[in-house]
Predict the 3D structure of the following.
Amino acid sequence: MRQRSIAGCYQNNVAWLYQNNVAWLYRPLIEKVEAYLAELSHRDDASATEIEVHISLSYFNSSSTKMLFSLLNILHLAAQDAFTIALHWYHDCEDDIAQEFGEELHIDFPALDFHSHIME
């Protein structure tokens, strides 16, 4: 299976996420994900495509949460329509908030194959 990284340059930079409006950071990523899903949907083997999304944040606030929900909603809709999409959520072993947020994601986006990973 061919692997393609569309978000390799979106490593978490804590200074960016401390801002109240992080749409400028997430919007290009969301646009790339939308374009990638549109490209895949036109392929004959689209239903056989498996997508993995890995998310690890050392900090997030209400603004980044909103944008993250936008991104995951796009993936959720794509998973409902055609694709198998696995969401890997990484959180620190001592970060109860991130763990609970991941559990909420699992509930809010049931079409995504959710995997929680504890980082030591």
In short: Helices lie at 14-17, 23-41, 62-81, 96-108. Confidence is low (pLDDT under 50) at residues 7-17.
